[in-house]
Amino acid sequence: MEFFDEEVMKVFKRICLVLAAAFLMAGCKQEEDEFNGLVISSNSSFVEAEEEVTFCATFYKDGSADSNEVVNFCVESDSTGGAVLKSESAKSGEYVLLKVGTVAGGFVKVAVECNGYSAYKIFGVNPSEEILVSDKAIGFAGLGVDMSKMVNTVTVSTGSELKQYAKRGGYVIFVEGSIDMSEGILPAEGSVMDGSSATDKMNSFVASNSEYSTYGEWIKNTTNVSVGDNTGTTSISNAYKKIIQIAVANNTAIIALDRGGYVRGGSFSVKDVSNVVIRNLSLKDAVDPFPHHESGDGWNAQHDLVSIDNGKNIWIDHCTFEDTLNLGKAANSEKWQVYDGLCDMKSTTTNVTVSNCVFKNHDKTMLIGSSDKDGENDPAARKISLFYNYWLNCGQRCPFVRNSLCHVLNNVYDSDSNRIYNSQTSINARAGSVVCAENNYFGTVASPNEAGGSISYSPNSNFNPESYYLYVTLENKNVKSWINANAGAGKVCVQ
Question: pTM of the prediction?
Answer without folding.
Answer: 0.89
